[in-house]
Write a sequence for this structure.
């Protein structure tokens, strides 16, 4: 299987049979969270276990991904910020994030951009989606890195509301599946901070959806 980051896997799964990339409010912040989780799982950053957990740069860290390196530099050049601040910051720059992730998938010869008025992508590697889904099913893998990947991607797919957009992934709807997936993470520290980042993404999206609903309601003539 071609090695994909969480962010790349998430975006790849958003490309439908027409070659159109799904664009939703939930997805933009799920991608932001995926970038943070990628760095955390590779020990490029640390997340303090305090009342107000902060993201801090690990000295000397560097990634092979241009997008991840850009985020690392921003974290390194900034004071320690809460997880939700970085989710918000990267989420606001979602167009650039999506563009760079798509370029990365093209460089890895997984997709290619179609010519035409509308932006569409042809999937070159037809087996990659099946490989990702088969990996997600395999909770009993002996590879700890893969176990961490499984839990994070399952949670991100659910948060991004992609359950009904991806074929053959209904098994993730099984209530215990995500809970069983996190149990496969052996390291307590990793289990805590991955679960925390997932929680922060969910919380951020929920609060912003509530604020948007209230704002729309106040602007409605019937509510004035």
């Amino acid at each position: 299987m071609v090695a994909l980051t969480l962010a790349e896997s998430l975006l790849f799964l958003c490309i439908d049979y027409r070659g159109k990339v799904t664009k939703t409010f939930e997805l933009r912040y799920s991608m932001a969270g995926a970038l943070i989780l990628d760095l955390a799982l590779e020990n490029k950053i640390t997340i303090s276990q305090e009342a107000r957990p902060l993201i801090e740069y690990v000295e000397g860290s560097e990634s092979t991904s241009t997008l991840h390196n850009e985020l690392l530099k921003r974290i390194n050049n900034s004071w320690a910020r809460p997880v939700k601040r970085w989710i918000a910051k990267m989420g606001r720059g979602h167009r650039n994030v999506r563009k760079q992730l798509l370029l990365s998938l093209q460089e890895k010869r997984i997709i290619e951009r179609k010519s035409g008025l509308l932006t569409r992508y042809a999937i070159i590697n037809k087996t990659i989606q099946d490989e990702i889904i088969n990996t997600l099913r395999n909770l009993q893998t002996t590879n700890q890195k893969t176990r961490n990947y499984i839990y994070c991607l399952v949670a991100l797919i659910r948060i991004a509301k992609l359950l009904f957009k991806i074929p053959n992934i209904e098994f993730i709807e099984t209530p215990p599946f995500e809970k069983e997936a996190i149990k496969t993470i052996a390291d307590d520290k990793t289990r805590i901070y991955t679960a925390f980042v997932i929680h922060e993404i969910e919380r951020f999206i929920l609060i912003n959806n509530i604020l948007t609903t209230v704002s729309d309601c106040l602007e409605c003539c019937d509510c004035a």
Notes: The domain at 6-223 is CATH 1.10.3630.10 (yeast vps74-n-term truncation variant fold). The longest strand covers residues 54-57. Strands lie at 45-47, 54-57, 81-82, 111-113, 121-123. The mean pLDDT is 87.
